[in-house]
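Retry 2 of 3 after timeout on previous attempt. Resubmitting structure tokens to design endpoint.
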């Protein structure tokens, strides 16, 4: 985000206004000395930064920024060739602070900024880790943009981020991944995603094939009557089996099997059947859901 401020004596001929960052302005970091580096983005938003802080994060980043200064030093305004939203993410990353306090950047801006990092002296491996602001920001986008986050993680080799994003891709049809996306994420991460989907389908099939066992034969309910339990289970497997998916919900499983077993009239059989449904749901819920 940005705002405007006046420079020079009000009303004088030399007075003018500049647009400045609402995160990096004079006095925005009271624990730091006065800002000694002014960076103007390609859309003319001014950032008041601290050379020593950027240098501490990455000497290469400071050197790269100063390469756009007309004097090659911090004594002149640096005309940076990137958009203010991207520059904001880069500077916040260098400062180790969150860029989402005022406004959450779009997923496209986040991806563009991270793709620019190596060019400007920042290592994605070092700054996108669990617990770090940028990692947390990307996780906020994962529920609505899981594929974009996963591709980004694969492209830059960020396993923790890829793992977290993969849990949101269970419902995604992998056949929709095009060649460009597959190439960008890399064959390793593409394979792991396919293995996750295929593995979960196999596990669910195995769980469904475990039919419930009967209870000890009693006078009121012998082996013949207990066949109703197996019959109900087979009916449930048939219904679920029409479309087994890696994202099959436990609520769907419970609903189908409870409906199929509604006609079981023996209390003991109902108990056995209900316990088996609960075991199925528990085992499926604990099945690995990330790469």
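Retry 2 succeeded. Sequence:
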């Amino acid at each position: 985000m940005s705002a405007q401020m006046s420079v020079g004596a009000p009303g004088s001929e030399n007075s003018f206004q500049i647009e400045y960052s609402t995160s990096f302005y004079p006095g925005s970091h009271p624990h730091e000395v006065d800002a000694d580096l002014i960076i103007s983005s390609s859309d003319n938003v001014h950032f008041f930064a601290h050379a020593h802080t950027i240098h501490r994060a990455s000497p290469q980043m400071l050197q790269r920024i100063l390469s756009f200064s007309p004097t090659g030093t911090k004594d002149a305004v640096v005309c940076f060739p990137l958009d203010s939203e991207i520059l904001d993410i880069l500077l916040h990353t260098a400062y180790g602070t969150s860029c989402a306090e005022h406004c959450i950047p779009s997923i496209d801006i986040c991806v563009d900024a991270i793709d620019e990092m190596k060019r400007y002296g920042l290592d994605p491996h070092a700054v996108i880790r669990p617990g770090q602001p940028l990692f947390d920001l990307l996780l906020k986008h994962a529920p609505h943009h899981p594929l974009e986050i996963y591709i980004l993680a694969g492209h830059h080799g960020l396993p923790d981020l890829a793992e977290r994003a993969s849990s949101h891709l269970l419902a995604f049809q992998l056949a929709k991944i095009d060649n460009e996306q597959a190439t960008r994420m890399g064959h390793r991460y593409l394979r792991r995603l396919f293995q996750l989907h295929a593995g979960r389908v196999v596990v669910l099939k195995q769980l469904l094939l475990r039919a419930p066992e009967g209870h000890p034969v009693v006078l009121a309910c012998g082996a013949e009557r207990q066949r109703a339990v197996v019959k109900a289970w087979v009916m449930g497997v048939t219904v679920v089996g029409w479309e087994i998916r890696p994202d099959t919900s436990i609520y769907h499983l419970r609903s189908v099997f409870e409906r199929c077993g509604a006609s079981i009239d023996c209390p003991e059989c109902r108990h056995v059947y209900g316990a088996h449904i609960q075991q199925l749901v528990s085992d499926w819920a604990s099945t690995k859901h990330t790469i």
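Attempt log closed. Residues 187-208 form the longest helix (22 residues).
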